[in-house]
UniProtKB/TrEMBL annotation:
Belongs to the hemerythrin family. This is Bacteriohemerythrin. CDD domains: Hemerythrin. The keyword Endoplasmic reticulum does not apply. Keywords: Iron, Metal-binding. InterPro entries: Hemerythrin, Hemerythrin-like, Hemerythrin-like_sf, Hemerythrin_metal-bd. Residues 14-123 form the Hemerythrin-like domain. It holds the Pfam family Hemerythrin. SUPFAM superfamilies: Hemerythrin-like. The keyword Metal-binding applies. GO terms for molecular function: metal ion binding.
Length: 130
């Protein structure tokens, strides 16, 4: 099921909210690719590369923002980002070494969806009060 951005994810920073919405859109596109039996691997590559780059840039931007505003969640935000980046690179490495498998795509999609929803509504939203 696709993830939809709603006010529960709002941080009151329009750039960050727009970045989260963009990450949701690409996570949903990845989901539709992951449901196909024989997806176009060029599309898999470009989605992976987009997600990876965009997420890294987003993390950098958001971490700087929290530091600047002395947000109490800054340290937690950064350490959860580090753990997620490690997961993402391990998953991409698995894809590189083992090739495309539907189970890999489904696992990665589920992790993206679960992690994003959980992290944004628990940690990123703390920017609202900073
Ligand atoms: Fe974050
Ligand atoms: Fe975020």
């Amino acid at each position: 099921m696709a993830i939809e951005w709603d006010k529960g994810f709002a941080t009151k920073d329009s750039h960050i909210d727009e970045q989260h919405q963009q990450i949701f859109r690409f996570t949903n596109r990845f989901e539709s690719v992951a449901q196909q039996e024989d997806p176009d691997l060029h599309e898999v590559e470009s989605l992976l590369s987009f997600l990876n780059t965009y997420i890294q840039n987003h993390f950098r931007y958001e971490e700087a923002c929290m530091l600047k505003r002395k947000c109490p969640a800054a340290q937690k935000n950064r350490s959860e980002h580090i753990a997620f980046k490690a997961y993402l690179s391990r998953s991409i490495e698995t894809y590189r070494t083992e090739g495309y498998r539907k189970s890999w795509a489904k696992d990665l999609h589920k992790k993206l969806e679960d992690w994003l929803c959980n992290h944004i509504c628990r940690v990123d939203v703390q920017l609202r009060d900073c």
